[in-house]
Amino acid sequence: MKKFILSVAAMAAFTAAWAEGYQVNTLSAKQGGMGHTGVAQKLESESMFFNPAGMAFMDKTMSFSASINGLSPKATITLDDGKKYHNASKVSTPFMASVGFSIYDNLKAGIAMYIPYGSSIDWGKNWPGALLNQSVDLKSYTIQPTISWKITPRLSIGAGLMMSWGNVNLNKGVTTNATTALLGMLSNKAYAYDDTPASVNITGTSQVCWGANFGIMYDISKKWSIGAAFRTEQKLKVTTGDASVIYSNEAAEEILSPYLNVLNTQFKASMPMPWVLSVGTTYKPIDRLKLAFDMQMTGWKSYDKLVIDFDSESAPDQIISKNYHNSLTFRLGGEYAITKRFDIRAGFIVDLPPVDKNRYNPETPAMTKLEPSAGFSFRPIPNLSIDFCVLYVHGLGVNNASCTYSDVIAEKLADMSAAGVIPENLKPAIQAVQAKPFVADYKVHAISGSLGISYSF
Questions:
Q1: How far is CA 376 from CA 54, 295, 385, 386, in A?
Q2: 143 or 435, which is more confident
Q3: Whole-prediction pTM value?
Q4: Which domains does the chain carry?
Q5: Which of 8, 178, 262, 426 falls 20 to 30 Å from 198 in CA-CA distance?
């Protein structure tokens, strides 16, 4: 039973971190400058990500593109007492690389690799929200072979097979100092420290899962194009995840180890990478100017519950309600060719959250985000382009957001109290350490810089 309780808390932390991880809003250094629009644009090999149908319009024998991005999120949490806590975030480096080939004038093929989700955040080991999160580092990877066919001079379709996997490394507190001191009092063991007494480390790598990326594009006229793309839902399944407990010192280990006796255990779980539907339009009022608008819906509603399967036959499966909802992202961008060798770009993204106010978590705070972007491309020679963009993420903030944490030792003490094995004078102290909602005000912002190179002939 003790192993079961800790595993539930550990897995809840693992899945929440992955599901609420940042959906990467800029993978292409070129398109990032335009608000990462691209559903109705002819982007050669990069179309494999935005809309596979767009690659069919490629007029080159071969097209190669690669971009690397640096994302540094900064978050602030303010508690009721006015104290502020800031994350010591690491820099995430999602990337995208793609290469496309011409088979016939109307038939193209290629392969792309990209990181659609990725983030890292670190609140430190000892802070009031440690039982929700201390640190998390997560990434998912996708490889996508693609084929694209131009049915008529104006109409094209495309499809890609997505092979995806991911990994996560997460740390969270298991119990508090007040609970540990109370448990020590019951066992006549002294405990008085400021550090989080016990933390759990979660690591897991999923199996490869499969999905598809479909697209269609149509030129209404020489000035107007429309497009739509759909990436199917994928299930990331962890079959041999590992959990281990880390104690702050010998006193904490002596008091807590009889209850947290899962230094090494394994679990199985699965969760969705939700479907994504994108529609867009592109308008070229003059040859040098291109304007684009995309709207994207992400199917987070598919993450309505989490099912946990434990290796031990004595531990029953657990079903944890999540109840996320679908979210929308709006993208607007423009590109202007100043010269034959130099283009400038600007864009704006409005990203709406999938998480309700009563399910917020400091792992990666979800809120409405406004994201302006700018970028440029320089072609030192006709077939080679060097691309750069910068995107700023401004979260609108959320006040009085809440999330209930789990203190497995406090729960054990409550059971002991209910069974009448704890002195009456300690029952108020036990009641005081029971889990309560973590209520806080959240603010977040981030800067993302992207550098890319593309070559075609």
A1: 21, 23, 10, 8
A2: 143
A3: 0.88
A4: 2-456 (2.40.160.60)
A5: 426
